[in-house]
């Protein structure tokens, strides 16, 4: 029984600059199932981030439909999309993008209060999540600039999770972090996924990709192949080998 | 920054206090008597006097006065006494009937010592305020120095000790408004850099090993070639009977074989390259060039709409938007040709169906009219060059017999195809490649 | 030159800020240049005008009985040069109405002179002459054309008591002495010989008079000449000889230029306010520029630029803008010169020509350049402290360790409100600047509106400043004044009467002296207009109240004793109060009747101020009185209307200035808010993008910007308007202090304050909404991308 939450059909995204049209995504068909940890890979300019933003309702596709649990979101208005995002999507960015003028807790609360009006509950959930990602009480009232990159990214993950979204979208979440912090953040994301959270992540990094159970390889706006790692155990060395082989085949 | 603001603030406060003090001193005029008031009182006394009220002392308003008449014996004594006491003295005159003024004596206004006490009190208040202000500011300054300089120094000391102990993970706490802020941060940066340097060293070692591993892998391929040739050589050499030829000839032959093989391989490569080049040139020489690009399928709908001059076109189903390979100009010509044929020969409604085949990546556009169709015998020929139907009506209609031929050429160039057949009328199916 | 390249690049990048600055500088230039050029040239201009027509230095108009003596008196004064005497007609109770412009009749005395007489002094040069001089042609003063819109060919209806006649305007003349009725409340009109003879034959129009025009050897000392003359006449001629008018050049010149000087001073101060705003904008945009470009600056420094060079590039940037702004402003100033010409001409009554005055150009350019470059240097100087490393690391000081003032966990407000307030607190420096600008402008708005209201709508306060009583009619009885005045007071039309006499007196203090219009009445508390600003009005016979101008001239203070010379009698008075008035050029004193009797024991109160009841017609009343007593026993003329006329001539100028000011204020507010919000949206593009990604709708984000911006705008508008409510009068007093005004009592309508606050807030709201609407169009992804301008 497949439990599809997000389905894209014939998805295309075209940027036009005057008469020059650039097709970044071309007739993509994707299905995301609940609990999937999907990684989108591909060389730079292959349309990875565009795909992520189109799927998450940040950007509207030029052609094609996106279906979220039976609702077509691709022709939502901007405001409807905003409401959709706040309820069903969480975002983690490479540049982290926490609001420098607010404390850690407030950064999470601004997202949480968009959906719930119960301040206490939101605050409690925020604290609980912060605890889960390994951030101590002390850091709640800190400002993002007082945190290390890894800590900040974990805060961002909490912000993404605060509304219990169906899907967390991550755009190179470890791209700006050093390897220790990156592993830290990835561990958090793996744990979150293990708890049943769907994740769609764009990455460049093979170590990051290894965490996924499904890898889509994008080239020139087309998914040229996909690999399922779901059958392999997490610590299986084959997992890495197969991934490596797959990527080599893709010309990575 | 903070200190500068404080200096400015203190200066402003002190200067303000100083100015306030000076103004207070200047405005508290000790001996200034209210002349207007005195004039008024004098005039009233004179009026009273004139009216016959010759009281010699009293109080008018707030002023107590005493009158010394010229006619009195003690006149001089009273006057000098008053002068001694800094008292205000003014003439008491009487206007006679003829308008002449006559001096009756002097009005002496009695002053009390209140002014001096008030002055003293004011001065005391002023000085107390000033000293209090200065003291307050000194305390403030000292407090500021303590919190923003002495305390951070203590923290810094502890920090330096940790660093010396090799604990590079210990972060230096920073707080806002700290005069040492930047300084503290620099220290923390220093710690961060030290930590990074140590980590970098470790990582550099790892990546060196990785590089060596990768390079060895890459070199495998050319080595394989060399190996294959070596094998061949070995086989050839082993196939030759050892005793047939002289030692030098045997060597020459084996070398020749080896070289011929290499040359053969290289020739293959050159051949492939040239054929590529040849094909590229050939395509460019084609007259009606088709520029295939990726286009949204919605262009097809707009093409039909543009050509729907008679309102006969009906879309029977929705087109699923997707990207197709086509040259919009040429595809437009294809559709134009098909439609104008239908207008010319059938002149009925035209129905359009779209059918997207996702697995074969094919979009089929079916264009159907309800006319007479073509002669079933001629059907396979309609797409041939210069072919025109044999029917009388067709022969009477002007036409070149190129429309469907060109349509087929264009569709082929776009990676698609065209099919024509009779079904209730004439039907054309265009297969367009989907990206 | 690479510095120039960087500068032009900066200008190109910040188009809006550049445009704003250029406009601000241009506006400042217009005001500053116009103000300076008029202020600097008005004095010379008046002298030149006068020299051109060989204008009189002193004019006396008398009834012609003592011509011989008068001539002897002025000829005996040492600085006398030469003089001319001619005959004319004096019409005291005349009123004029231009039928073509449809104005109301003005009651103003007039002197008619013969146009055909040859004269050396005050030659008549006709402007806009009619082709064929009609018999009833009249040459009117130029001010009627400039301020009241008279045209050649208009019909001027003259009414004296019951009789009236129609004259045709045949041209205009310029003469400083009779340039503006605000100064000398009398028209000098030239008519043809035949018309004058006709007038003289009809005594109901006016009486024959002698018109003396005197030239002195020193044009700068005509006041001394006049006071010498007044003193001599008092000594040698019997009291009450028929002298109508005595006007001297110096006094008139000061009087004529007072109002225009005030206007120009307002313009200059307004331009300084705009410069201050420009300075704030510069400071603000320089700071943002440095913050935004800190990495570029770091790169430039890394490439080898010195901080000096980078600083220079910023200075060159502003230098270019200033130059452009100045040229634009100068061009605009020349373009609007007809308006300025009209403003100046209508206030001075002489034909002013606006031109290009090199000194004024240089001075205004210098002031603006210095202000702009100074402020940009100061605000950009912190570049010097930036090292390439800190710059590339985006600056160490950008760290923000604040106390969390509104923790979302605890606040009760709605999320968007809280976010708005957070932004409000975070942008406090910028908000402070915006607030200051709006506050300043709000204050100026209230000031401008209040000035307009008091000059044009409700003139009570202005009348108080002028210092004239609001009595409609002035009655002068030759004899039997007690019965006549009692009868008049009992008439049903009359609300109140006060006996008030004025004469020209000479006040002495120590060895200094000054002439002053001395008012005499029994009880000052009965007067309708209280001019006292300090101390009190005289009550006893030895008390006096004096204007601050006279006090300043004498070097005396309240509490000092001054003396008055009258017909050889000298009497001492104690200064008990300070009064203020525009009238008589602010040179006035007030004593009681009892005090006057000390000077002149035979003094009689022969002058009566009559206050008519509400709705009574002045002209009818005058006619009635005249009929009842006959012109032999009393002389009647309408009193207050002349003051109103004088105000009318200011009204046009005030209107132009106020409208201009309000327009410019609106433009500045819109520009400043536009700049501030645009910069904010650009700077916070990433944050806005992330917020959109998190699920905030465009409306919510606009709402946040509104909440973070509007309290500042509304607060500043309200504070500014309230400050305006309290500051208008002190400001006005400060501006008019040169005219001896210490204290103003302009009525500032609270509705006006409310209107200003609401108006500015609404303007701000509209601007913020429009600019913030940009957010709507941007998709979250675009917001991440850099370099979207």
Automatic annotation (TrEMBL), chain A:
GO molecular function, one term: transmembrane transporter activity
Any single GO CC term annotated in Swiss-Prot or TrEMBL for this entry: plasma membrane
Domain ABC transporter residue range list: 6-245
Enzyme class, broadest EC rank: hydrolase
InterPro entries reported for this sequence: AAA+_ATPase (IPR003593), ABC_transporter-like_ATP-bd (IPR003439), ABC_transporter-like_CS (IPR017871), ABC_transpr_LolD-like (IPR015854), MacB-like_ATP-bd (IPR017911), P-loop_NTPase (IPR027417)
Keywords assigned: ATP-binding, Hydrolase, Lipoprotein, Nucleotide-binding, Transport
Pfam family of the protein (one): ABC_tran
EC number: 3.6.3.-
PANTHER family documented for this protein: IMPORT ATP-BINDING PROTEIN
Name under which the protein is recorded: Lipoprotein-releasing system ATP-binding protein LolD
Organism from which the protein derives: Acetobacterium wieringae
UniProtKB/TrEMBL annotation, chain B:
Top-level enzyme category: transferase
GO cellular component: plasma membrane
Sequence ranges assigned to domain HAMP in this UniProt record: 147-199
Enzyme Commission no: 2.7.13.3
Subcellular location: Cell membrane
Molecular function GO terms recorded: ATP binding; phosphorelay sensor kinase activity
Phosphoprotein found in the keyword field: yes
PROSITE patterns given in the database record: HAMP (PS50885), HIS_KIN (PS50109)
Name of protein: histidine kinase
Organism, as annotated: Acetobacterium wieringae
TrEMBL record, chain C:
Domain ABC3 transporter permease C-terminal stretches: 269-388, 663-780
GO cellular component terms, semicolon-separated: plasma membrane
Record's keyword annotation contains Signal: no
Transmembrane region(s): 21-42, 258-282, 318-340, 360-380, 432-453, 656-681, 701-727, 747-773
Localization per record: Cell membrane
Membrane topology qualifier: Multi-pass membrane protein
Domain of life: Bacteria
One GO MF term: transmembrane transporter activity
PANTHER family: ABC TRANSPORTER PERMEASE YTRF, MEMBRANE COMPONENT OF TRANSPORTER-RELATED
Protein name: FtsX-like permease family protein
């Amino acid at each position: 029984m497949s439990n599809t939450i997000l389905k894209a059909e014939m998805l295309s995204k075209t940027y036009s600059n005057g008469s020059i049209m650039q097709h970044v995504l071309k007739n993509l068909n994707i299905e995301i199932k609940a609990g999937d940890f999907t990684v989108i890979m591909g060389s730079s300019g292959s349309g990875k981030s565009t795909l992520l933003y189109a799927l998450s309702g940040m950007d509207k596709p030029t052609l094609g439909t996106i279906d979220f649990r039976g609702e077509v979101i691709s022709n939502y208005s901007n405001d409807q999309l905003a409401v959709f995002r706040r309820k069903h999507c969480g975002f983690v960015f490479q540049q982290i993008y926490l609001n420098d003028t607010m404390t850690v807790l407030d950064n999470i609360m601004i997202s949480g209060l968009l959906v719930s009006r119960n301040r206490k509950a939101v605050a409690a959930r925020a604290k609980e999540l912060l605890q889960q990602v390994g951030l101590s009480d002390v850091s709640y009232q800190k400002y993002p600039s007082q945190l290390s990159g890894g800590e900040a990214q974990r805060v961002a993950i909490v912000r993404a999770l605060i509304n219990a979204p169906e899907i967390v979208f991550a755009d190179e979440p470890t791209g700006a972090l050093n390897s220790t912090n990156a592993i830290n953040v990835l561990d958090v994301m793996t744990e979150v996924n293990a708890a049943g959270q769907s994740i769609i992540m764009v990455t460049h990094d093979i170590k990051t990709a290894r965490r996924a159970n499904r890898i889509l390889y994008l080239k020139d706006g087309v998914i040229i192949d996909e690999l399922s790692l779901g059958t392999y155990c997490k610590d299986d060395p084959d997992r890495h080998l197969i991934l490596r082989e797959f990527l080599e085949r893709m010309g990575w | 920054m903070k200190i500068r603001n404080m200096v400015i603030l203190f200066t402003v406060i002190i200067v303000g206090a100083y100015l306030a003090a000076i103004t207070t001193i200047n405005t508290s005029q000790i001996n200034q008597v209210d002349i207007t008031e005195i004039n008024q009182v004098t005039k009233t006394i004179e009026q009273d006097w004139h009216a016959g009220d010759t009281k010699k002392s009293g109080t008018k308003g707030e002023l107590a006065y005493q009158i010394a008449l010229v006619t009195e014996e003690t006149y001089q004594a009273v006057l000098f006494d008053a002068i001694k006491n800094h008292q205000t003295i003014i003439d008491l005159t009487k206007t006679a009937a003829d308008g002449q003024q006559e001096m009756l004596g002097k009005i002496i206004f009695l002053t009390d010592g209140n002014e001096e006490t008030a002055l003293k009190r004011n001065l005391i208040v002023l000085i107390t305020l000033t000293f209090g202000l200065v003291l307050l500011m000194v305390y403030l300054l000292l407090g500021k120095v303590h919190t923003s300089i002495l305390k951070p120094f203590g923290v810094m000391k502890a920090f330096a000790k940790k660093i010396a102990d090799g604990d590079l993970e210990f972060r230096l706490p920073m707080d806002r408004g700290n005069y040492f802020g930047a300084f503290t941060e620099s220290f923390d940066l220093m710690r961060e850099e030290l930590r990074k340097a140590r980590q970098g060293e470790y990582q550099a070692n790892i990546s060196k090993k990785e590089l060596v591993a990768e390079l060895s892998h890459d070199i495998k391929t050319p080595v394989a070639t060399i190996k294959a040739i070596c094998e061949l050589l070995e086989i050839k050499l082993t196939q030759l009977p050892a005793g047939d030829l002289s030692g030098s000839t045997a060597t020459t032959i084996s070398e020749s074989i080896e070289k011929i093989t290499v040359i053969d391989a290289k020739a293959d490569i050159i051949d492939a390259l040239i054929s590529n080049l040849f094909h590229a040139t050939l395509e460019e020489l084609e007259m009606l060039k088709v520029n295939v690009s990726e286009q949204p399928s919605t262009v097809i709908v707009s093409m039909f709409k543009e050509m729907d001059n008679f309102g006969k076109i009906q879309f029977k189903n929705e087109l699923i938007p997707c990207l197709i390979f086509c040259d919009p100009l040429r595809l437009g010509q294809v559709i134009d040709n098909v439609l104008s044929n239908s207008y010319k020969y059938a002149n009925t409604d035209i129905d359009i169906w779209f059918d997207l085949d996702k697995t074969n990546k094919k979009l089929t556009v079916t264009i159907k009219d309800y006319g007479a169709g073509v002669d079933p015998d001629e059907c396979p020929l309609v797409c041939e060059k210069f072919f025109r139907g044999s029917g009388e009506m067709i022969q009477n209609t002007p036409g070149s017999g190129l429309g469907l031929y060109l349509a087929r050429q264009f569709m082929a160039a776009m990676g698609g195809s065209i099919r024509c057949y009779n079904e209730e009328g004439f039907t054309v199916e265009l297969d367009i490649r989907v990206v | 030159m690479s510095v120039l390249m960087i500068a032009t690049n900066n200008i190109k990048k910040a188009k809006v800020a550049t445009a704003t600055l250029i406009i601000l500088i241009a506006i400042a230039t217009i005001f500053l240049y116009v103000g300076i050029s008029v202020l600097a040239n008005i004095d010379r201009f008046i002298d030149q005008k006068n020299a051109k027509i060989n204008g009189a230095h002193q004019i006396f108009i008398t009834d012609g009985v003592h011509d011989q003596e008068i001539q002897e008196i002025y000829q005996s004064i040492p600085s006398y040069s030469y003089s001319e005497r001619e005959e004319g007609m004096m019409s005291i109770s005349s009123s004029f109405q231009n039928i073509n412009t449809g104005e109301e009749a003005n009651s103003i005395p007039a002197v008619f002179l013969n146009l055909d007489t040859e004269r050396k002094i005050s030659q008549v040069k006709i402007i806009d002459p009619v082709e064929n001089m009609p018999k009833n042609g009249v040459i009117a003063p130029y001010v009627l054309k400039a301020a009241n819109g008279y045209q050649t060919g208009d019909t001027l209806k003259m009414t004296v008591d019951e009789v009236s006649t129609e004259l045709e305007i045949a041209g205009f003349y310029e003469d400083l002495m009779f340039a503006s009725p605000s100064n000398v409340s009398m028209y000098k009109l030239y008519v043809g010989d035949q018309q004058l003879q006709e007038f003289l034959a009809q005594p109901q129009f006016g009486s024959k008079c002698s018109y003396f025009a005197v030239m002195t050897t020193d044009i700068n000392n005509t006041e001394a000449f006049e006071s010498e003359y007044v003193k001599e006449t008092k000594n040698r001629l019997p009291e009450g000889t028929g002298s109508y008018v005595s006007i001297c050049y110096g006094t008139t010149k000061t009087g004529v230029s007072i109002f225009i000087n005030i206007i120009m001073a307002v313009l200059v101060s307004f331009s300084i306010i705009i410069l201050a705003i420009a300075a704030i904008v510069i400071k603000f945009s320089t700071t943002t520029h440095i913050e935004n470009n800190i990495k570029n600056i770091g790169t430039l420094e890394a490439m080898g630029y010195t901080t000096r060079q980078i600083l220079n590039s910023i200075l060159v940037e502003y230098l270019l803008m200033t130059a452009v702004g100045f040229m634009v402003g100068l061009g605009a100033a020349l373009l609007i010169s007809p308006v300025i010409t009209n403003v100046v001409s209508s206030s001075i009554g002489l034909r002013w020509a606006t031109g290009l005055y090199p000194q004024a150009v240089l001075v205004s350019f210098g002031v603006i350049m210095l202000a702009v470059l100074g402020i940009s240097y100061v605000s950009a100087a912190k570049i010097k402290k930036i090292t390439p490393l800190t710059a590339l690391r985006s600056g160490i000081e950008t760290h923000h360790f604040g106390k969390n003032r509104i923790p979302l966990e605890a606040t009760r407000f709605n999320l968007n409100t809280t976010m708005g307030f957070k932004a409000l607190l975070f942008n406090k420096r910028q908000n402070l600047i915006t607030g200051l600008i709006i506050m300043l402008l709000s204050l100026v708005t209230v000031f401008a509106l209040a000035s307009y209201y008091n000059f044009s709508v409700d003139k009570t306060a202005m009348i108080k400043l002028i210092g004239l009583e609001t009595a409609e009619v002035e009655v002068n009885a030759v004899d039997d004044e007690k019965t006549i005045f009692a009868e008049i007071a009992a008439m049903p039309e009359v609300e109140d009467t006060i006996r008030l006499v004025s004469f020209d007196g000479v006040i002495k203090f120590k060895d200094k002296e000054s002439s002053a219009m001395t008012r005499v009445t029994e009880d000052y508390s009965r007067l309708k207009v209280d001019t006292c600003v300090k101390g009190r009005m005289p009550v006893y016979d030895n008390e006096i109240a004096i204007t601050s101008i006279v006090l300043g001239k004498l070097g005396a203070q309240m509490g000092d004793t001054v003396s008055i010379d009258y017909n050889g009698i000298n009497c001492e008075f104690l200064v008990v109060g300070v009064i203020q008035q525009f009238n008589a050029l602010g040179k006035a004193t007030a004593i009681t009747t009892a005090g006057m009797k000390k000077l002149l024991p035979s003094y009689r109160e022969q002058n009566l101020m009559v206050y008519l009841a509400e709705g009574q017609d002045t002209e009818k009343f005058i006619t009635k009185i005249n009929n009842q007593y006959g012109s032999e026993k009393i002389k009647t003329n309408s009193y207050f209307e002349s003051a109103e006329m004088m105000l009318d001539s200011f009204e046009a100028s005030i209107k132009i200035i106020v409208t201009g000011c309000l327009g410019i204020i609106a433009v500045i507010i819109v520009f400043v808010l536009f700049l501030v919000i645009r910069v904010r949206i650009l700077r916070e593009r990433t944050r806005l993008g992330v917020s959109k990604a998190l699920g905030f709708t465009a409306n919510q984000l606009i709402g946040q910007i509104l909440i973070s911006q509007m309290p500042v705008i509304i607060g500043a508008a309200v504070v500014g308007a309230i400050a305006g409510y309290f500051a208008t009068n002190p400001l006005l007093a400060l501006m008019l202090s040169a005219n001896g005004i210490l204290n103003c009592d302009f009525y500032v309508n609270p509705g006006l304050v409310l209107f200003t606050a609401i108006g500015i807030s609404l303007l701000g709201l509209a601007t913020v909404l429009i600019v913030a609407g940009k957010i709507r169009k941007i998709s979250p992804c675009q917001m991440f991308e850099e370099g979207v301008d």
